[in-house]
Structure formats: C-alpha cells, structure tokens
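Checklist before submission:
- one chain only
- standard amino acids only
- sequence pasted in full

Submission:
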Amino acid sequence: MTVKLVFIIGNAAVGKMTVGQELMKITDLRLFHNHMTIEPVIEIFGYYDGKVVKRLREVIFEEFAASENAGLIFTFMWAFDMQSDRDYMLHVAQLFEEKGAEIYCVELVAPQEIRLERNVTENRLKHKASKRDLEFSRNTLLDADRKHRIESVDGEVPFENYMRIDNSQMEPADVAAKIKEKFAL
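Returned file contents:
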C-alpha cells in the first residue's frame, strides 16, 4: 500500500480542519491540522513560536512518513506571496515522497464574509483555543487577507494531483466526499 499525503490548503476559516475531519471519517487517512502544534506551543510558551511549531511538525512528518499508516491529511494556510511557504510545502512533500508516498493537494476557497462567519463556529473554537478571543481572531483573519495572497493563481500549485474547491455553499462532508472520489482515496 502506498502512503498518501493530502494537503488541504486555504485561507483562514475556510474550513480546512473541518473538511479534514470529514475526510478522515471516510478514509484510512489520519488528520494533522495545523493547530495541533500551534495550540500546545502557545499553551506552553505563552505565545506563538513558529520555530518550535516547525520543529514539532518536522518530527511528526518524519515519523509518520516512516510508519505503516495509510496516509496523512495536513492543513496549512499557504501564503503564495511568500517563497518560504512554497519551500516549506515542497519540503514536507519531499519527506513523504522519499518514502514512496503519493502527494495530493486540495485548495479550499470562500469569500471573506463566509470565512468570518465560520471563524466563530463551535467546532473551530473547540479545537483552536487561540481563536476563542473572537476580536483577536477576526482581526488576525482580516490582517492576513490584507497582507498576504492565500489563494493560488492558475498553475501555481506545484503538485500534479491538485483540485480547487469553492466550498462556500457546500457542507464539509460533501467536500470530503468530492475529494475522496477525485483522488480515489
């Protein structure tokens, strides 16, 4: 069995984690959403430390790629205007490719007004303690929209197995089913 790595990328509060949760329910893949390392680092250090988050993720990626698991779903907010984000995604993919993994990438997109509504959903707040300060979370989302380009342009995503889904009016389970079908997961 070939290990699979499924990236779910997209802007803040677009539904990456929730779609990942639904995809995990209908496949043999495990979910590693980006806040699974962010939240413990904030809790332990009292602030976000990107260097520590990256090191924790690296260990998880290396060990998972070497494991007998069927595959991993990883969620990430990729700023396409930052070369470092592109380099990071290619690095993670390479860790898995070295173990013979197949790489898939799903980009979720939705307008800001929908993402602002999703920013305060029960599921998001349950799994992301740092988002419970609603004013801070809203401002962080708006700030990221002003400072970065989180949606790709045609041909920018370097992975052959790629799909873009506007999930504005879709239920997470339906998005997950579409991903599973498209990539035969």
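Reviewer check: Strands lie at 4-10, 30-32, 71-76, 102-109, 162-166.
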